[in-house]
Amino acid sequence: MKRFLLLLLLSTAISCKKKSDLQPESISGQWVGKGYECPTGTAIPEEIVEIVEDQGKITATKKTGDQCVPAGKVTFTGTYDEAKKIYNLKWTTGTPNSPASSTSTAGTLTVIDNNHLETTFSSNPSVTFTRKK
User: Fold this and answer.
1) Quick one: which of 46, 51, 41 has its CA closest to 66?
2) Rounded-to-integer distance, Cα 21 and Cα 46, Å
3) Tell me: the pLDDT tens digits for 35-65?
4) Domain extent listing, the chain
5) Record: fold of 25-131
6) What secondary structure does DSSP assign to 36-49, as a single string?
């Protein structure tokens, strides 16, 4: 009986951890992104990206794109930071005259839950993602 109670208490304590305290489940799949701009200041209603995750590394490729980062191009890559519980990103940026021309812009990606992601991107507003159904 003591063993049962101890196991019950332990499982309850584990299940009470905040989502941000746990390593996220796979974020591989298609996502709808809102908050992209191209050029800066011109909002794009939404774009579809395909995220592939492998051993803590992610690559997001645009399925629908814009003049700054067209469809088929990588929009960001990242690695999971276990200590901070976020992905550190390198964004691909460009302009209509020079699309997908730079990968030096840093940012972060936070897993809100299994169906929602939020990113930061230098001085631009965040891009949020909802898992495509």
Assistant:
1) 46
2) 30
3) 999 998 899 999 999 999 999 999 999 999 9
4) 25-131
5) Lipocalin (2.40.128)
6) -BSSTT-B-S-EEE
